[in-house]
Specification:
By secondary structure, this protein is mainly β. It folds into 2 domains: about 140 residues, Immunoglobulin-like; about 90 residues, Sandwich (Immunoglobulin-like), CATH 2.60.40.1930. It has 1 helix and 19 strands. It is globular and about 60 Å long. The strands form 5 sheets. Strands 4, 5, 7, 10 and 11 form a 5-stranded antiparallel β-sheet that branches.
Length: about 260
């Protein structure tokens, strides 16, 4: 009896500590929210992290069969995995099995089980794998399609060096990711006021091989650059605002 009570107590504690997101039924159109532009909340060293992804699964969709577009019914979309999460980060769903029936609302929560540390600072691209079961498919009956959502990412920053101490003179470049890089590089900078910022990539001879004008926003600004056409080598990337010019090294590789 004592052992049974201890087991029951452990189960209760586990249920109480289980993290589950709250479904948002205010979404008016099928899709995943936040979108690629908004992306996920930033994480900070020493602070617990939690961010929610809301889903309204479409009830039907159009698929191509032998060159013809046909309408099918979505039975369910399953979130099968999220890879690339930082250390001590995990996720849960509502419904708990991460299977989202067609035409229904659902959500997933990504959260930290241990507060991020200095060693965790960085940029973490995520890959979400999904499996969609479509039914009422002409001549076939049902099909399963595997897909990935790869535009989400989590930034872990040191609060003492970014958002907590922003003022109008703040202008800081965060590390590019990845570096070395072979295709797309993600650049980030932090600024204390909205203003025009110039971005350049310069080769070893001093030639500007890529440039961009950015209408920056207060806080962290992020953008991707396709460098796949640049020859392998070492480059310098520069950010310039009204008062500062900051540069760092970029390595282009063929890995």
């Amino acid at each position: 009896m004592k052992q049974l009570l201890l087991t029951f107590s452990a189960i209760c504690i586990a249920l109480i500590s289980y993290s589950q997101c709250s479904i948002d039924t205010s979404i008016s159109s099928p899709g995943i929210f936040p979108d690629e532009i908004t992306n996920l909340d930033e994480a900070f060293v020493g602070q617990a992290y939690s961010t929610q992804i809301d889903v309204l699964t479409p009830l039907d969709t159009s698929v191509s069969l032998s060159g013809l577009n046909v309408n099918v019914t979505i039975s369910a979309i399953d979130l099968t995995s999220i890879t690339g999460l930082p250390n001590n980060f995990t996720y849960s769903c509502n419904p708990p099995n991460c299977s989202f029936p067609g035409g229904t609302y659902a959500c997933a929560e990504i959260y930290s089980t241990v507060n991020p540390s200095q060693a965790d600072i960085g940029y973490y691209p995520l890959v979400m794998t999904t499996s969609t079961l479509a039914i009422n498919v002409p001549l076939i009956g049902s099909i399963t399609q595997l897909d990935t959502v790869d535009y989400f990412f989590i930034d872990i920053s040191n609060t003492t060096s970014t958002l907590e101490q922003l003022n109008t003179s703040t202008f800081k470049i965060l590390d590019v990711f990845p570096n070395p890089v072979s295709d797309y590089a993600n650049f980030q900078f932090v600024i204390g006021k909205s203003e025009h910022v110039s971005f350049y990539i310069v080769d070893v001879l001093g030639n500007i091989v890529n440039e961009k004008k950015i209408n920056s926003n207060y806080g962290v600004n992020k953008f991707d650059v396709d460098i796949s056409k640049l020859p392998i080598g070492i480059y310098t990337y520069c950010f310039k605002n009204s008062n500062n010019l900051i540069s760092k090294k970029l390595i282009v590789s063929d890995f």
